[in-house]
Amino acid sequence: MPSILGYVRNPKFTRISAAGISAAGAAALAFTVIPGSADAGDKSQSAAKKVTASQKSSSPDSPRDRAELKAAKQGTLDSDVQRSGDVVAAQKEGVAKQKAVASERAAAVKEQADKKIAAAEKAEKERKAEAKAKASRDAKRAAAKPTYPNNLDGWIREAMAIMKKHNIPGSYEGIKRNIIRESGGNPNAVNNWDINAQNGTPSKGLLQTIKPTFDAYHVEGTSTDMTDPVANIVAACNYAADRYGSMDNVNSAY
Fold it and tell me: Residue spans with biased composition (Polar residues) (predicted)?
């Protein structure tokens, strides 16, 4: 019975073909011996793909991890910003409280200072008002012409008030003592017998002055009548102050 390969005339080709057929048979046998080998390969490939996908998903370079890392960093940053904002807010609140306290203290100090100033101003106004009132009273008293009794005591006191204004020295006792010696207190007394009378200028008045002396030492504001008691005292004391220093220093005819 002729072989199915009998038509291949080339022995070499026949051998190669047989070998190829043998190999093909072996392969077929192998596939036949391992049942479900195709399904196993597919499953292996699927598992490998899953492992690769899992590795990719767990890799820090994966988009998911990068997103999660970014979100975590952003959360940390937001938390830090929040804490920083809280600190700044607390600091601002503390500064605001300090300013409020300082403002209250400044207001209290200003209030006390204003009270002191107001009190000082009030006291100064009262002092000025009192000084003004006193000056007014003094002016009224000065303007009011004092009255003196028409006697020796009154004449001396009125003369001394005028002498004081013109800085003419002389005490009440010194003036009275010389008046009593010279005229006995008579404003109209006249000496008609001494050398002055002999020369035509008799001594007259309380302090017995002569006309030339009275005219030379007359004080403005007083009477020009030499026998006027006040005018006579003032002119005589003015003369005595010029020649003896004061009427108090005169103890005899002068």
Answer: 43-61
